């Protein structure tokens, strides 16, 4: 074979690889990813949960506006709205890009918001992380349970799995779950790396925790694009 005959297929292959790389893997700079997710969320108010579409409507906080320690909002639509607005304020005050919410259950309109998922830059490795904030009040000791996760990529189911709740974080440096988890106020912050090898696209995830009696402890929904 002459050089030319070899070089042409090699060139085509190389071109194809570079094309695939730029189409699927080459991510925009971290600041652009953050800006895009901030914008997306602001334009899809329904995704942000009950009462989240506007910060300055006529709703008044009934109490505890300056109290950092509210983790028990009660039940019902008003409580749901109050919880959502508190977390919106928290995200706003800390200038965080929201990519998800945590609730006390997976279904229904009056879900109480227990936390938020923010997209933050990773100062150590570069790239981005998902940071979960959770403030809750446990009414019953947790001595066991499961953690479930379902992920979709560009609208198609990609991955689902479940683990034992008490050991899911075993071996992690920043472990936060140690069983038994006692009753009362619990506040957690957890960073998870969004791996740089993930292809570009839209990721939606649902994750939920159950206790030893298979009661749902909480449910998280997130939605972001990279
Ligand atoms: C959650 O708890 C943290 C730490 O106490 C507090 O700073 C934050 O305001 C709380 N968030 C909400 C929405 O209450």
From TrEMBL:
The cross-references to Pfam families, in alphabetical order and at most eight, read:
E1_DerP2_DerF2 (PF02221)
| Start-end of Acidic residues biased regions | 57-72
Question: Where would I find the MD-2-related lipid-recognition domain in this sequence?
Answer: 103-224
Q: Which UniProt keywords apply?
A: Membrane, Transmembrane, Transmembrane helix
Q: Which top-rank group of organisms is this from?
A: Eukaryota
The answer, when asked if Signal is one of the entry's keywords, is: no
The question of whether Transmembrane is a record keyword is answered with yes
Q: Which residues form a coiled coil?
A: none
Q: Which InterPro entries match?
A: Ig_E-set, ML_dom
Disordered: annotated span: 45-75
Residue spans crossing the bilayer: 6-24
Q: What is this protein called?
A: MD-2-related lipid-recognition domain-containing protein
Q: Which organism is it from?
A: Capitella teleta
